[in-house]
Design brief:
The chain is an alpha/beta fold. It folds into 2 domains: 3-78 and 179-291, D-Maltodextrin-Binding Protein, domain 2, CATH 3.40.190.10; 83-174, D-Maltodextrin-Binding Protein, domain 2, CATH 3.40.190.10. It is built from 14 helices and 9 strands. The protein has helices spanning 17-24, 27-30, 43-48, 59-64, 104-116, 134-143, 156-162, 171-174, 187-192, 194-213, 215-226, 234-244, 254-268, 282-291, and strands at residues 3-9, 33-39, 53-56, 69-74, 83-86, 99-100, 149-152, 166-170, 182-186. A 5-stranded mixed sheet has the order 2-1-3-9-4. α11 (215-226) crosses α12 (234-244). The radius of gyration is 19 Å and the shape is globular.
């Protein structure tokens, strides 16, 4: 039996496949870890000990607010994977009056997309209501007449476009320096259980390579874990795989993280800490050397 650890991803969406593969294909077990997967947990759950490893985008903000957490490896090398889709009849973003979102990250992406078209979201009258239940519920609400558009992740923006809605761009196309998907632990976990952190990061590095080298097996895992998210057959699984696989990476973009800390510090009116206080590269660099 391995050491029990709890992992949390925001939702069972295919963008988090490397986590699912690390569990499903035994990479965590091979490192002596016995994982339990949960969803929709917060950085505070790391501090309370309810979660050991957390996937997220906005941990740098919670760090600046005082949570003693560290970024230990990446999951996706690009921010802004959600797409702004608009209902038929919306000729341009200037016609938008309401765009539904599922999280604060979606607002940041929407802001970047609109800025590309010359619209300042913060100065506009566009409303951004939060739809609980995330993208499936957003799309359902949009089909029922709620909002002019929605910020959707795959496969839901794919379904929307197939059903006649308009793809008006994504944060990755038009946004710069949007937060990437990364993985966090507490500083206490690193100090007290470095072997667990080392094993976890090694498992993630192995998982990233496996996702690229074993496509049929990875697609099986996508369907198994993301079935409830609308990825219920191999064809859809391959479509979302092709969207996400170029960006799955355990690497950490230190310059981009430095900029995120700087901007967030300015917004929170706090001094900008050295990036090394937040990012711990020790385990990732070791895994990269050992595993290639």
């Amino acid at each position: 039996m391995g050491v029990p650890v709890v992992l949390s991803a925001p939702r069972p969406a295919p963008s988090f496949t490397p986590i699912f593969v690390a569990i499903d294909r035994g990479f965590l077990a091979a490192e002596g870890l016995e994982p339990t997967l949960t969803f929709e947990r917060a950085e505070t759950d790391l501090i309370s000990g309810e979660v050991d490893f957390l996937v997220g985008r906005l941990g740098h903000i919670e760090f600046l607010k005082g949570l003693d957490i560290r970024m230990i490896c990446g999951l996706a090398s690009e921010g802004g994977s959600h797409v702004l889709v608009a209902r038929p009849g919306i000729r341009s973003v200037h016609d938008l009056k309401e765009v539904t979102v599922a999280a604060e990250q979606n607002v940041m992406e929407l802001r970047a997309i609109l800025a590309h078209y010359g619209v300042d979201l913060d100065r506009s009258s566009i409303k951004t209501p939060l739809i609980k239940g995330s993208h499936p519920k957003q799309y359902e609400a949009m089909k029922q007449g709620v909002g002019d558009g929605a910020m959707l992740g795959a496969p839901w923006w794919i379904y929307a476009v197939r059903d006649g809605y308009q793809n008006m761009g994504s944060g990755s196309e038009y946004g710069e320096e949007l937060p990437h998907l990364t993985i966090y632990v507490t500083a206490e976990k690193i100090a007290r259980h470095p072997d667990q952190v080392k094993g976890f990061v090694r498992a993630m590095v192995k998982s990233m390579k496996y996702c690229r080298d074993h496509i049929p097996e990875t697609l099986e895992t996508v369907v198994r874990y993301s079935n409830s998210w609308g990825v219920d057959n191999p064809e859809i699984a391959k479509m979302v795989y092709d969207v996400f696989v170029p960006n799955w990476s355990a690497s950490i973009d230190v310059p981009a993280t430095t900029q995120l800390l700087r901007r967030a510090s300015e917004e929170l009116k706090k001094p900008t800490p050295p990036v090394g206080d937040f990012v711990d590269l020790h385990f990732l660099e070791s895994a990269m050397r050992e595993l290639g």
